[in-house]
Amino acid sequence: MSQIPSYSDICILRLSAIGDVCHGVSAVQAIQKAHPNAKITWVVGKVEAMLLAGLPGVELVVFDKKQGKVAYQQLKQQFKGRMFDVLLHMQVALRANLVARCIPAKTKVGFDWARSKELHSLFINKRIAPAQQAHVLEGFKGFAHAIGVPDYKPTWKMPVSCEDQAIADQLLGAERLAGRIFVISPAASKKERNWLAERYAKMAEHAHSKGFNVVITGGPTPLEIELSAQIIANTQTPILNLVGKTKLKELLCVLKRAELVLAPDTGPAHMAVTVGTPVIGLYAHSNPKRTGPYLYQDYVVEVYHQNLLKQTGKTAEQLPWGTRIKGSELMSQIQVDDVIVMFERVVLEINNDIEPPL
């Protein structure tokens, strides 16, 4: 068996988004196990840093994109006189590529040719191994493998405090004490990726009829506030509305208390994975085999593949991996009955303590 190469100073570059940095945590913590003496520095976005703050053994360097050119200048100044053994450049977006230019490292590891875009190849001098039809998290595993980390099963130790959990429990109140919790995290970053409010309401009714307390979570954006209000308006089922009332770490603690989460393609779905809470994912625009809740991909209800074939005449395997499809009405093709069937299956497996297949 070949010896794992030694590193003393490793830099991780993954700025966004919430779901992707959750995937990144599992890779970083696997790297820490394989290289226990290495110093780990993670360059990350401002919002994402709120979730990762306190990550054990990791120095977070925040890149605030809203500062424009100043953010790049600050990064150069912060790393002046420093030289990392290796930079793991885990993001191909142009902004991230420009950030990579500001990070001094002997070796800069990036994605393989097939996954490189937006001039990514100009900012790296080594590539991870190619992977066919890989989940985003598998791509991050590739970076760990590139620096000698043996294959591993992803695990997470998320940085939340007793205070974070206490605040979450206080917000949950009677729901936490009264029994099982079903969380609906209904909003994605784009409106077209959201399911219909009246259908979320139907799922709230069904879950309540099965003995679950229903909680809606989300951020303080107008889209999320409006969607949660529409869901509540479409049902007489009692729903605890925590939209806009939790910080990211508190939201993570709420998801940890839940027994089951329902969500579209959005960050909280991946947050739930990190704390071991099963997720029913609703997908229409992106391939759930690439971006679905990693441990619960078998629990996805999707219309992506049928619409991809309809729009392009090709399957996902015949197109560039990760091809997205467009259409403001696609999510409406996901039927309540199909989600109820999945809900019943997942609850049965939870009750019988069955491990979900990957």
UniProtKB/TrEMBL annotation:
SUPFAM superfamilies: UDP-Glycosyltransferase/glycogen phosphorylase
InterPro entries xref list: Glyco_trans_9, LPS_LOS_Heptosyltrfase
GO biological process: lipopolysaccharide core region biosynthetic process
Gene3D superfamilies membership: Glycogen Phosphorylase B (3.40.50.2000)
CDD domains, per the entry: GT9_LPS_heptosyltransferase
Key word Transferase present: yes
GO MF terms, alphabetically ordered: ADP-heptose-lipopolysaccharide heptosyltransferase activity
Pfam families, A to Z: Glyco_transf_9
Source taxon at top rank: Bacteria
Keyword list, A-Z: Glycosyltransferase, Transferase
UniProt feature coiled coil, ranges: none
Family: Belongs to the glycosyltransferase 9 family.
Designated name of the protein: Glycosyl transferase
GO cellular component terms attached to this protein's record: cytosol
Species name: Pseudoalteromonas porphyrae
